[in-house]
């Protein structure tokens, strides 16, 4: 049910592709930039609409748009925590990203979902800790809800790929 692959999440096929967005929902660097470039400008327009309605997205929360040119039905945009020192609720907020994305995926009747390694790029979350939190949160969710049949962790860098492979 849980798989790890190394590669570019914009090339992956799944009902839902998760984006590591920022609070503005306006796009940015890293995986966020890659997803917006590959999905097309209709996605940014939907993000702007959400932003006008609710003022962006809070850290740990998730919003949904269609997926444009990606091989997916929807993109879930979630905002990971900026890692400071581990004493600013980073772990709880990172777990909330995975949990809230999965809950939203359930509401949209998804069976498969692909996650990037949220917060482990520009936001500086220690990769080992982030991987443990991601896997534990997903496992707990899959134990409770059976609708989601496949969760893909898409690792862009070798370090994350090795960490996830070892943990799984
Ligand atoms: P954050 O601000 O949440 O740290 P980043 O985009 O900087 O977001 O990094 C999150 C993770 O996404 C990093 O591990 C980075 O290596 C990875 N990443 C960057 N580009 C891609 C991509 N095209 N597909 C999958 N993962 C990617």
TrEMBL record:
Species assigned in the record: Arachidicoccus rhizosphaerae
One Pfam family cited in the UniProt record for this chain: Macro
InterPro entries referenced in this protein's UniProt entry, alphabetically: Macro_dom, Macro_dom-like
Protein name according to UniProt: O-acetyl-ADP-ribose deacetylase (Regulator of RNase III), contains Macro domain
NCBIfam families according to UniProt: PRK00431.1-6
Stretches assigned to the Macro domain: 1-168
PROSITE patterns, alphabetized: MACRO (PS51154)
Signal peptide: none
